[in-house]
Specification:
Pfam families: Longin, Synaptobrevin. By secondary structure, the protein is α+β, with helices and mostly antiparallel strands. The chain has a single domain, classed as Beta-Lactamase (2-Layer Sandwich), CATH 3.30.450. The chain has 8 helices and 6 strands; from the N terminus they run ααββαβββαααβαα.
Length: 240
């Protein structure tokens, strides 16, 4: 026996039947740093240095590093090596020049301004180069807004820029935030970026990376030993 349409609209105990309210789709998180982590993008370090010409080592004015993807006992050596490579590349970059140097799975992006103030961003392969140089530019602008030309009188290494850089490091883990900066940085495309496949290709003829490692004051004996061991064993610690 077929039921009438009227019977189909009646629920249990004769109560009128109401269809269930449509379920609301869960709200999706807005794009942000979690997207960068999901895609493997990583901004590992930002530094500000004073360029002293190609015959003298630059002065470090501050560094901010996120080494959470390295083992606890590796972090000290990785930090040392980031400082060492950044200083080495900045010294071999001319005023007004931008360079990107690849080391294993990481890229070191360097910009030396005409004033001699230099910025460095160390990123993994997935972090876009354009975004990385935008971060460097912003870090140098933030440093200049707070300290002006104080870097010109720097006679040694310091850490005054570190608080400024730590804010940039946290903010720009999401490259989309850095991409917003490029819209107002029209000069970014006016300076050609020189790309080097290895650190060795940046060095002067006759210079050897192993020799620079041995005489570097940035690397402790433990870091030098770690570098040599990692090199021999082709270690997974890619920053070494």
């Amino acid at each position: 026996m077929m039921r009438s349409d009227k019977q189909c609209d009646v629920g249990p105990h004769g109560a009128p039947f109401s269809p269930p309210a449509p379920t609301r789709a869960p709200r999706q998180p807005s794009p942000g740093p979690w997207v960068a982590r999901l895609l493997g993008m990583k901004l590992t370090a930002i530094g500000v240095l004073r360029w002293n010409g190609d015959a003298k080592e630059p002065n470090v004015l501050g560094f901010a590093c996120d080494l959470s993807n390295f083992g606890y006992f590796q972090r000290g050596s990785v930090r040392d090596f980031i400082t060492f490579t950044s200083r080495t590349i900045v010294q071999r970059t001319q005023r007004g020049q931008r360079q990107t140097v690849q080391h294993e799975d990481y890229f070191i992006h360097v910009h030396v301004k005409e004033s001699g103030l230099a910025g460095v961003a160390v990123c993994d392969q997935e972090y876009p180069q354009r975004a990385a140089f935008s971060v460097v530019t912003r870090a140098l602008e933030d440093y200049g807004a707070k300290f002006g030309d104080a870097f010109r009188s720097a006679s040694g290494d310091g850490q005054e820029a570190t608080p400024v850089l730590e804010q940039c490091l946290a903010r720009f883990q999401d490259p989309a935030q850095a991409d917003k900066l490029t819209k107002i940085q029209r000069d970014l495309d006016e300076t050609k970026v020189i790309l080097h496949k290895t650190i060795e290709s940046v060095l002067e003829r006759g210079e050897k990376l192993d020799h620079l490692v041995e005489k570097s004051s940035d690397l402790s004996l433990a870091s030098q030993m770690f570098y040599k061991t990692a090199k021999r064993s082709n270690s997974c610690c890619k920053m070494m």
